[in-house]
Amino acid sequence: MAGRPGVTVDPALVRVAVADVRRRISEAGGDDSVVILAVTKGFGPDAIEAALAAGCSAIGENYAQELVAKRDAAAGAEVHFIGQLQTNKVRQVAGVVQVYETVDRERLAAEIAKRDPGAGVLVQVDTSGEPGKGGCPIGELDPLVEAIRSLDLDLRGLMTVGPTDGGPEAARAGFRAVRAAADRLGLSVVSMGMSDDLEVAVQEGSTEVRVGSALFGARPVRT
Ligand SMILES: *Cc1c(COP(=O)(O)O)cnc(C)c1O
User: Fold this and answer.
1) Could you tell me where the beta strands, DSSP code E, fall in the chain?
2) Helix (H, G, I), strand (E, B), or coil: what is residue 71?
3) Among protein residues, the one whose CA lies closest to atom 4 of ligand 1
4) Domain 11-216 coded CATH 2.40.160.40
5) Ligand 1 close to Cβ of residue 206 (< 6 A)
6) Helices and strands in the chain: count of H runs, count of E runs
């Protein structure tokens, strides 16, 4: 699955693309503290290497098996798991992942605490209401955060994925609500914004944008 033959990235182009994303963040009012999480799903280990060479220190992956296959390239990076995570897959990625961004239920949190004690976690909030994206409804956030705080985990913040349709502005209200919730709960990390809506996310207080296609081009079709 990893390193599909024929799909390679050009490290020089990735370097230019990282600078361009950095400029977009800055023009949206973000400073250098906004983390660019390089989302390498669908690409081979060379994408991870190119992102690291271009100065990104954090890598985002969506699929357990694909991540495990590319783990050597990610050594030395901070690996964030950003895909939907089944409880029975936690064991596979424990020790490879430093930050689990898609924790949206207590059972998953408990499994991570058991298999990967002390791991960094973000709670994913559902702001789009779209099926298949995961996330905890914002109205159920407080009890989940409270439960996670009693576990052996390093709860760092919140994460959300904007709606697929409607353009970047359609994401604004949800992003604003997630930032407000993070502030209210005393959480410092807010992971929101992707290639198409990162300006809106930064304007609404994102501390980490998750960027794939703007760095590496269109993803190879997942087969
Ligand atoms: C794939 C993915 C991204 C990156 O999306 P791009 O539009 O390619 O920037 C960000 N976040 C999550 C959760 C993803 O699955």
Assistant:
1) 35-39, 58-61, 78-81, 99-103, 120-126, 136-137, 154-160, 189-191, 208-211
2) helix
3) 212
4) no
5) no
6) 10, 9
The set of residues, in sequence order, having a beta carbon less than 8 Å from that of 117 and lying 6+ positions away, is: 152, 153
- CA proximity to 79, closest of 110, 54, 52, 108: 52
Single-letter amino acid, residue 175? F
pLDDT value at position 101? Answer: 98
How far is Cα 58 from Cα 53, in angstroms, rounded to an integer?
12
pLDDT mean over 181-187 = 98
Residue 17's alpha-carbon distances to 20, 39, 42, 131, in angstroms, are: 5, 13, 18, 31
Cα distances from 135 to residues 26, 32, 82, 119, 159, in angstroms, run 28, 28, 11, 19, 9
Ligand 1 atom 6: the closest Cα is on which residue?
212
DSSP state at residue 118: T
Q: In the predicted model, is pLDDT for residue 6 greater than 60?
A: no
145 lines ligand 1 (CB under 6 A): no
| CA-CA-CA-CA dihedral for 201, 31, 28, 22, to nearest 10 | -90
Convert the pLDDT of each residue in 128-178 to its tens digit. 999 889 999 999 999 999 999 999 999 999 999 999 999 999 999 999 999
